[in-house]
Amino acid sequence: MAISVDSPEASRNLMQQAGYTFSFLSDQKTEVIRRYDLVHAGAGENGGDIARPAEFLVDRTGTVRWINLTENYFVRARPEDVLNKVNLLQ
Amino acid sequence: MNGRRFNWPLWVGVLLTVFAAFSYPFIFIWYPVTRDFPWVNLLLFAVAIVFLFLGVRRGFARDRAHPTRSKILTSLVGGFSVLIIALFLFSYFVFARWLPPSKGAPQVGQKVPEFTLPDSNGRQVSLNELLTTPIEGKAPKGVLLIFYRGYW
Fold first, then answer.
1. What's the Cα-to-Cα distance from B7 to each of B14, B15, B21, B53, B54, rounded to whole Å?
2. What angle separates helix B39-59 from helix B67-93, to the nearest 10 degrees?
3. Which of A39, A70, A72, A89 is the best residue to mutate to test the B interface, defined by the most B CB atoms within 10 Å of its own CB?
4. Which candidate in A77, B48, B120, B146 could, as Cys together with B16 as Cys, close a disulfide (CB 3.0–4.6 Å)?
5. Residue B120 is nearest to which of A8, A32, A40, comparing CB atoms?
6. Mind giving me the DSSP string for A14-29?
7. Which residue, among B41, B120, B149, would best test binding to A if mutated, counting the most A CBs under 10 Å from its CB?
8. Does A24 share its domain with A48?
């Protein structure tokens, strides 16, 4: 589940171009991004607010099991590491 | 004398510097092993600096055919290279770390806030729905929420 300030149209284009099959959610007003305290103020195009990169693994009870908040936006969680965490979920 | 006219180490140095900087966003960012820490680019910069050092020394040598012209050109090319290197280091090591502290973000063991957002087809999707709707007849194990910067 990917979440950003991109519009549904932009997400659709991205999914088609990149061949992603998981869902992309649009939070254009940064309401949810704000609720999760992930707003990177003024970092978007034209000085808009965007989400900082962040990953949360949530179990079926809605409880966080793993977080990745990078300190450098060039450094992201690696897919194999995330899959290992996902496999730990009951 | 003839061999000293063309200051090739200087030009190799500046070309290598430009390549070292621009190969990160265009090539090495695509591979986690060269993206998470830009060691290939730093190595290229190190080699470039050696050439630049040799080039600057040659450009400022006394036996140049046009000493003043050579010094001005060497200073400009050398200065440009230093600027490129400084910009790269700033971008990766300083600018990319200017992220909000996110102290209020959900922590391990805490419940995440509920939300409802439209997906790429405009359908409203709630977290609760994602956590409870069966996938291929089985209850989902959970959800991975990936917040990203957007504008891809």
1. 11, 13, 22, 12, 9
2. 160
3. A72
4. B48
5. A8
6. HHHHHT--S-EEE-TT
7. B120
8. yes
Q: What is the mean pLDDT of each run of 10 residues along chain B (152 residues)?
A: 75 97 95 94 98 96 89 96 97 94 94 95 94 89 94 72
Q: Are residues A45 and A17 in the same domain?
A: yes
Tell me whether residues B142 and A11 touch, CB distance under 8 A: no
A40 and A1, same structural domain? yes
Mean pLDDT of A21-49: 93
Q: B21 burial class (0-12, 13-18, 19+ CB within 10 angstroms)?
A: buried
List the domain range (segments joined by +) for residue A63: 55-90
Whether residue B145 contacts residue B106, with contact meaning beta carbons closer than 8 Å, is answered with no
A-chain residues near B97 (CB < 8 A) = 71-72
Instruction: Give the pTM.
Output: 0.84
A60 and A47 in one domain?
no
